[in-house]
Amino acid sequence: MSSLPVHNPRFDVPLRDPAWHQRLFWIVFALVLIWPLAVATEFRPGVLFEAENRRISAEFIGSFFPPVLEPDLLWRIVDATWTTVAIATAGMVMALIIAFPLTILSTRVLSISAISGRMNALPFLVRQTIRWVLIFLRSIPELVWALVFVRVVGLGPTAGVLAIALTYGGMLGKVYGEILESGESTATETLLRNGSGRLQAFFYGLLPQNVMELTSYTVYRWECAIRSSVVLGFVGAGGLGQELDNSMKMFNGGEVSTMLIVFILLVALADTVSAFFRKRLL
């Protein structure tokens, strides 16, 4: 005689998700949070599908085809693209020149007076002042810096280089400091206790164990600088962005389409180079 199967409550499949009330809470919470933001920003995606707006969008997008491939335009775009890369690279070099000394001076791990546990008043004041300088530099967008420098030095790549240098100098200084302070500091403290200076403690204590992360972030920021340098061209900082702005003002959609394709390829190339360096470092 066959025996009846034994019921085991451990294998019962629940008919309702046991965490449904938590999921419902967070969905409602997100909706309650997003709704006033959408109202404040007058976010109305439905206007995109109105008949008149659809017609205008179709005409605007249709003007992009076919892309213009005239030799004169292509040579102009090549020259502007090279200028864009040069602006981003020169700006990053200057940003590193700004960020490196500020990072050394503002990193608590490299403070000799902080070895005992509490930093002296003067080093603490200097460290906080430098941190506020970094906050000031990175809080002003590079676009605003570019508008300022265009009035000071005139139209051209110089304004873009200086804008990227200041904003990215503040960003690099902040992130470099966080990376250095979050790592292992035993070797650095040992060097400082035995009479080593800040630079020696940095190069022989902190840098070797954080060089991969520092370099990876720097390469990523260079990739971001290329995107930013294109945007800065719209305010007269030169490069591909300025050529793009001129073509858009002339309602030449074919030229705009060609430049957008080149810009997409440029960003893809920068992403490939960035990934290559990260892979080599890890």
Describe this structure in words.
The protein is mostly helical. The protein has one domain: MetI-like (MetI-like fold, Orthogonal Bundle), CATH 1.10.3720.10. The protein is built from 10 helices and no strands. The protein starts with 19 loop residues before the first helix and ends with a helix.
Distance linking N and C termini: 66 Å
Mean pLDDT figure: 81
Unreliably modeled segments: none
Sheet of most strands: none
CATH superfamily, by name, is MetI-like
Counting DSSP H or I runs of 4 or more residues, the number of helices is 10
Question: What CATH architecture label applies?
Answer: Orthogonal Bundle
Helix content: over 70%
* SSE pattern: HHHHHHHHHH
CATH class: Mainly Alpha
- Computed structural class: mainly alpha
The number of distinct β-strands equals 0
Shape: globular
